[in-house]
Amino acid sequence: MSHALPLSNLRIANFGWVWAGPVTGQTLGFLGADVVKIESQTRIDLTRTLPPFAEGEGGPNRSLSNHACWAGNGSVTLNLKKPEAIELAKEFIATCDAVVENFGPGVMERMGLGYEELVKVKSDIVLFSMPAAGQYGALKSVRTYGMSLTSLTGVDSLTGYPGGDPVPFENAFADPYNGILGAFAVLTALNYRDRTGKGQHIDHSQQEAVMQMAGPAFMDYEINGRVAGPLGNRHPLAVNAPHGVFRCAGDDRWISIAVTTDDEWADLVSAMDSPAWASESAYSDRASRIANIDSLHEKISEWTAAVDDRALAEKLQAAGVAAAPALNVGDLLEDPHFCERETFVEVDHPLGFKETIYGAYVKTSRTKASVAPGPWMGQDNERVFKEVLGMSSDRYDQLVSDEIIF
């Protein structure tokens, strides 16, 4: 017996750009929603310009990273600088359940697509706005990307090596983090709509969402008056030891090991074949191990350096110790666990090439997500304008010619 995907009754107009907004659409799309990204040839989205490109040939429809980041979204092209395109956007929104955008505050209003205008075309519409720092406040107009968001939220002050300078995140990880949170904010609002008949405007501050990553540091400051700094791989509250990443045999191979109790320490010592140094008083209990963490980590590193990371992880897991190999990207694509779960999938792009993209990270028991690469520009133009909006072919052709559908 076949079952529809859980969100197959929803349609989303997605004005989100770069990464965060499209991931909101991706999450909803993998669960069955009809998500249509609204973009334009007049301003090519940044991620469409990012290499690598399929078969080395550049162009806005051939960015492999774009196809991974935007999977789950469709695409229509509208030149929103033209009033008729704004009216078409409103006509489409009238058929939708929710609208997603991650522009700065005021951008949607200036285009004539603010919440007050949208409720005129769909009284119970949900508008999800996710600017960097929210719709109001002293920082509401701050210009950021994902990497600067982690600086604003204090997270970058916590990453780096003990005693050294902060080492900021090397990628805009705040974007997909906010995108996934955003999808479930939309679902929460739609659940409220279904119960009450009322839509709403969601003010999602990306900055405040990312701040949750620094939660333990906030609590440590409030309770103990301590301002946290870079700790490398040590436990953020200095309550566990060993707690780190240790070099293994081979080229740039590492293993993470975390011990939380004295019983787990005894299990680790046994797995190490009970070396003499492990029985010293400096490591006899958790408090002692924390106090002597530098020498402890040095001793463990000497042991792990001659061992294969995966084999050691299996041995330690079997002994009851939390341990895992520090996988690189190549490892991820070949890892048996991720292969079985289809974490990454190879797909055929309609333009004639194969590519590997993310699979559905939310999985349901009765249905299997349909995963396709991110859209080429305007791939859904005819479907949306002719089928959903009932536009005649003559009018459609004229709007294309006039570069309104563009």
Assign an overall shape: elongated
Distance between the termini: 41 Å
CATH superfamily of the largest domain: Crotonobetainyl-coa:carnitine coa-transferase, domain 1
Task: Output the structural class.
Answer: alpha/beta
Task: Report the major sheet.
Answer: 6 strands, parallel
Helical amount? 25-40%
Q: Which regions are unreliable across 5 or more consecutive residues at pLDDT < 50?
A: none
Mean pLDDT: 95
> Can you tell me the CATH architecture of the largest domain?
3-Layer(aba) Sandwich
Amount of beta strand: 5-15%
Describe the strand arrangement of the main beta sheet, using strand numbers: 3-2-1-4-5-6
Count of distinct strands: 11
Could you name the CATH class of the largest domain?
Alpha Beta
The count of helical stretches stands at 17
CATH topology of the largest domain: Rossmann fold
SSE series? EHEHEHEHHEHHEHHEEHHHHEHHEEHH
Can you walk through the features of this model?
- By secondary structure, the chain is of the alpha/beta class.
- The protein has two domains: 11-204 and 339-401, Crotonobetainyl-coa:carnitine coa-transferase, domain 1 (Rossmann fold, 3-Layer(aba) Sandwich), CATH 3.40.50; 243-247 and 253-327, formyl-coa transferase, domain 3 (2-Layer Sandwich).
- Helix content is 37%, strand content 13%.
- The protein contains 17 helices and eleven strands.
- The strands form three sheets. A six-stranded parallel beta sheet has the order 3-2-1-4-5-6, sandwiched between helices.
- It is elongated and about 85 Å long.
- The two termini are 41 Å apart.
- The model has no long low-confidence stretch (mean pLDDT 95).
